[in-house]
Each structure stands twice: as C-alpha cells, then as structure tokens.
Amino acid sequence: MMRKFNPVVFGVLALLCATGAWGCNQQKVSPLTSKIRDLETRYAKLEEDFRTLQASNEQVRKRLSAAETSRTALEQEKSELTKKVDSLTSERDVLSKQVTSRTTERDTAQANLMQFSKDLQMLAGRVEAALNENSGSSNATIIPASRRNE
C-alpha cells in the first residue's frame, strides 16, 4: 500500500516545515534579543554608575588627604601653643613671686619710713623743747653731737 512518493507534496511539506521552523526560531530570538538589549542597557547604566562612584571616591580621597594634612598641622600648632602656654605660665608664676617679694619690700620700707618719720618728729619736738628751755638764758650754745668731743 505504499503509494508512489509525490515530489510536489514533499516540496510543499519541506517548505511548510522550513517556514514553521523559521517562525518558531524568530519567536524564540525576539524575547532573547530584547532580554539581551535590556541586559546591555543595565550593564551600560552600571558602568556609568561605577565611573560616577569612582570619580566621587577619588574626590573623597582627596578631601580626606587634605583633612589629614590639616589635622596634622593643627596638632602641631596645638603642641606649639601648649608649649607656649606652659612657658608663659611659668613666667607668670615667677613674676607673681617677684611682685609678692617687691610688695613685701615696699611694705617694709614704708614701715621703716614711717618709723623714721616718727623718730624725726620726736627729735624735732625735743629740739624745740630744748630751745624753749634755753631761750630764757641766752648764753646757751648748741654744739652738734659730732663736735662735742673736740
């Protein structure tokens, strides 16, 4: 029962199979192509984001380096100022001791001067009293203490 093989039917069948295969192949390629395009777009966006982050990272590194340099300079300045404050504090303490010493010397000198002034006033009072006693007798001569032995 096998009939004779017709080449036209075989050609039509071959053409139909080829067209079906091509159609199926086109259908599968289309979603893959769109997925590939989506992935390429994502990849390009990620590369752009990476470049942006890299540039930002470089700027942050530069700012960090500048901040570190500034911090080092400030620490050195702080150290110098601390030394200066310490030396000024010691100088202030020395000056305070000198002021205390000079104040004590001044107070002592003032007390001595006051005592000398009182002694002079008392001496002047005795001289006046002696003059008043001797004013009655005009023969009295006053001889300084330095010449009494001559």
What labels describe this entry?
150 residues; mainly alpha
Short description:
This protein is an all-alpha fold. It is built from 1 helix and no strands.
Walkthrough of the structure:
It is a single chain. It is built from 1 helix and no strands. It has one helix at 7-134. The longest helix is centred in the middle third of the chain and has 128 residues, at 7-134. 0% of the residues are buried. The mean pLDDT is 86.
Say how many strands there are: 0
Q: Helix tally?
A: 1
| Mean of all residue-level pLDDT scores | 86
Question: Ranges with pLDDT <50 over ≥5 residues?
Answer: none
Q: Report the portion of residues in β strands.
A: under 5%
- Measured between the Cα atoms of the first and last residue, the distance is 190 Å
Structural class: mainly alpha
Please summarize the sheet with the most strands. none
Radius of gyration: 61 Å
Order of helices and strands: H
Q: How much helix, percentage-wise, in residues?
A: over 70%
Apparent shape: rod-shaped
Topology record:
Layout (H helix, E strand, L loop, with lengths): L6 H128 L16
